[in-house]
Specification:
By secondary structure, the chain is mainly α. It is 66% helix and 2% strand.
């Protein structure tokens, strides 16, 4: 398939998803779901490795049969969708076809396919529900529609197709399917129990990795840990930051239970779950996860104690800023702009954001198109290649699995005890910053 046909397929797929999100009529939504399926299949054909048509066709047939079986289960027990989705979140399967290798969310995509078939069956049987996402439906439809339309002028059609097929299209449909569920108390409790149990198991795995100085899956993280002054773990996830964010979601859910549940026994269990997940979170050394946790805790405090909590939140933020400012490397970098100044403190984020705003300024009307950021960033930063080793890693994420591993913290985290696997001198010499 040519890149021009892929552009058309992307537009067709997101138009179908947008119709599924906002169309009021049953037949309109059914047509949108069909367009979503046809466009997604065309993008998959465009991205598929060449020379393995038989293998890929067999995999597609097996996937459809599995999705049909899953759809039958979802029609009988709809709440299996939420439980299965959560269970499949960390599962990335290494897939090799010819010379092409990738770590894909195959189980989660199978759940999405089953949800799509179940939704199609319900619409065919006369289901008249619409706009399940309520006020979010219209802006979400506009967002995905613009993203797909921008593939028409993207400088990197392949990367744009990957982003559509791996993220926009499946997760947009999954949002609709989840919103259609009848959210009852017992199922919400079951979902929370599953989330907490998974977080505790993942935390135990992460702690065991830190103790034994051993990780799974990610060879780039292994290399980074060799030269870093500390040791990051990823548990069963590919990326330590994704692992950390999963634990943050679990901690915040348990925090809500601890704040609002009346049973002392349940509160104590929630506090124990928070302690276990927090211990695992420490060894992810994920800055974004810690910031997300701070924001979530502040919001939970406001919900629990109202305006009285605002003062506590402000005081906590002030203490955090003071602690960060006391760190010598942070103070010196910000005040004297040493070794990149703020960019170094933020692990490359400030430079990434600065160049991102410049790209938006230079392309004010329609942007650079989905998937085109790598090319635009390389041009803006005057880089010789599209993905050099010295560039911010998050600006150059080029597959459906986001690969990024920071090898040095900033701020208060830099005071953490250093790993015996690498000396500080070698770590500073070979340190690589990422923008996760």
């Amino acid at each position: 398939m040519s890149s021009e046909l892929a552009r058309v397929a992307g537009v067709v797929a997101v138009a179908g998803l947008a119709a599924l999100l906002v169309a009021p009529g049953r037949m309109q939504r059914l047509a949108g779901l069909a367009a979503w399926g046809v466009g997604s299949a065309a993008l998959a054909v465009y991205l598929a490795p060449k020379g393995h048509a038989g293998l890929l066709a067999g995999g597609a047939v097996a996937g459809l049969l599995l999705a049909a079986a899953g759809a039958a289960l979802l029609l009988r027990w709809p709440w299996l969708l939420a439980l299965a989705t959560l269970a499949c979140v960390p599962a990335r399967i290494p897939v090799t076809v010819g010379s092409t290798q990738a770590n894909l969310l195959v189980p989660l995509y199978a759940v999405v396919a089953a949800a799509g078939l179940a939704l199609a069956w319900e619409l065919l049987r006369g289901d008249t529900r619409s706009r399940e996402l309520g006020p979010v439906a219209l802006p979400l439809a506009a967002f995905v529609a613009w993203g797909g339309l921008s593939l028409a002028w993207s400088q990197d059609v392949r990367q744009g197709a990957i982003e559509l097929l791996a993220f926009y299209l499946p997760f947009g449909l999954l949002a609709v399917a989840l919103a259609r569920l009848d959210w009852r108390r017992r199922w919400v409790i079951a979902l929370y129990a599953e989330l907490t149990l998974m977080a505790i198991v993942f935390a135990v795995v992460g702690i065991e990795q830190w103790i034994n100085r051993d990780i799974f899956w990610n060879p780039k993280l292994l290399v980074g840990n060799t030269y870093a002054p500390f040791f990051r773990v990823n548990s069963v996830f590919w990326d330590p930051s994704i692992y950390g964010r999963f634990l943050v979601v679990s901690i915040l859910a348990s925090l809500i239970v601890a704040l609002f549940w009346r049973s002392v026994r349940v509160v104590l269990l929630a506090v124990a779950a928070i302690a276990a997940a927090w211990t695992g979170l420490i060894f992810s050394f994920s800055q974004s996860s810690f910031l997300a946790l701070i924001a979530g805790v502040a919001l939970a405090a406001v919900l629990a104690w109202g305006r009285r909590a605002l003062l506590l939140v402000v005081l906590a933020a002030a203490v955090f800023v003071l602690v960060a400012a006391v760190a010598p490397n942070v103070r010196h970098a910000v005040l004297h702009h040493a070794n990149g100044g703020l960019n170094r403190v933020t692990s490359g984020r400030s430079k990434l954001v600065k160049n991102g705003f410049k790209i938006a300024e230079h392309n004010p009307a329609v942007g650079v198109g989905i998937g085109g950021f790598k090319h635009a960033y390389a041009k803006q930063a005057h880089l010789r290649s599209k993905e050099p080793a010295s560039s911010p890693r998050s600006a150059f994420t080029a597959s459906s699995t986001t690969i990024s591993s920071r090898t040095r913290p900033s701020g208060p985290l830099s005071a953490w005890p250093r790993s015996p696997r690498g000396s500080p001198t070698r770590a500073r010499r070979r340190r690589r910053s990422t923008a996760r």
